[in-house]
Amino acid sequence: MGLKERLSKEWFMFCILLVIVLAKMDPSVGAKGGPLKPETTITYIAVSTIFFNSGLSLKTEELTSALMHIKLHLFVQIFTLAFFPTTIWLFLQLLSITSINEWLLKGLQTVGCMPPPVSSAVILTKAVGGNEAAAIFNSAFGSFLGIIVTPLLLLIFLGSSSSVPFTSIFSQLSMTVVVPLIIGQIVRRYIKDWLERKKPPFGTISSCVLLTIIYTTFCDTFSNTNIDLDGLSLLIILFIIFSVQLSFMFLTFFFSTRNNLGFTPADTVAIIFCSTHKSLTLADLVELAKSVPFQPHCTQDP
Questions:
Q1: Using an 8 Å Cβ cutoff, are 72 and 271 in contact?
Q2: Comparing 21-25, 83-87, 107-111, which segment has the lowest mean pLDDT?
Q3: Are the beta carbons of 115 and 145 closer than 8 angstroms?
Q4: 132-158 helix and 102-112 helix, angle to the nearest 10 degrees
Q5: β strands within the chain, DSSP E
Q6: Quick one: which of 93, 91, 72 has its CA closest to 241?
Q7: 283 Cβ contact partners less than 8 Å away, ≥ 6 residues apart
Q8: Which of 19, 47, 131, 205 is the residue whose CA sits 20 to 30 A from 214?
Q9: Is 173:103 a contact under the CB 8 Å cutoff?
Q10: Following DSSP, what letter does each residue of 229-294 receive, concatenated?
Q11: CA angle 109, 112, 115 (to 5 degrees)
Q12: Predicted pLDDT of residue 289
C-alpha cells in the first residue's frame, strides 16, 4: 500500500499526531483563555455539534431500540462505575509500595472514578461502525450518573470530599447533549429524503470536531506549568495507563462476545469504547491530585 493510500485510510490517526505536534509548538493558541476560547467553542459548540450531528444521522427507531437495550446499559455502567474503579484501587495498592510519585497514583484513582466522556466514545464508535445510538445513550447517561456516583467513589477510595456544582453540570450536559440530539432528530424529519439521497459525511464531520477537542486538550496540557514530575515516573505511569487501557478493552471484548449475552458485533464496539474511556486529561489528573487538602472536583470532558 502506497503512502497516499495509507494516508487516505489512516488520515484520522495521522491528524491526531499532527494536532498534538501543533499543540506542543504553541499551546497558548488552544489553551483556556487563548484565542480559540475552548471554554466556549469546545465545551459548548463542539460538543453540541457532535450530538446534533448524531441526531441528524440516526434513525429515530435506532435511538428507541438503543434506549431499550437494558442489558447493554447495565454492562457499560457497572463496568465503568464499579468494576473499573475497584480494579484500579486494587492495582494501586501494589504500586503504592514502589517509588512512583504518589500524586500520580492518586490521580490514576481519580480518573478511574470518573464517568465516561460524552464525545470521544460516541465518535470512535461511529467511526468503526459500532452501535452509535447505544454509545450516545451510555455516554450521556453515564455522565449524568457520574454527577452523583463519582463523588461517592472518590470518598470511598480516596477518603476525599468533593463539591459538585450539580445544577450547572446538569444544565451543561442537557444543553450540549440532550437538546442538540433532539433538535437533530426534529430537523431530520424535514430533510430525511435529502439526507438519504446525498448521504453527508457525518462520520468525517464528527472526527474533525474530535480533532479540535484533542488539540485544545493538549494545548491545555502543554501550557500547564504546574506539572513537576520526574521523567521516569511519567514514563512508568504512561506505560501503566497504556497497559490498563489495553487490558480493560480486552476484558470488555471477551465478556461482551460471549454467546449467552446476545450482543451483536456493533454492540461490542460500543461497549468497548464506552466502558474503558474516562473524562480527565493528564493535566487535570495532576492538578486534581496535587490539591491540598485533596478535594477533587467532577469535570466533564467536552
A1: yes
A2: 107-111
A3: yes
A4: 130
A5: none
A6: 91
A7: 220, 221, 224, 227
A8: 131
A9: no
A10: --HHHHHHHHHHHHHHHHHHHHHHHHHHT-GGG---HHHHHHHHHHHH--S--HHHHHHHHT-SS-
A11: 140
A12: 43
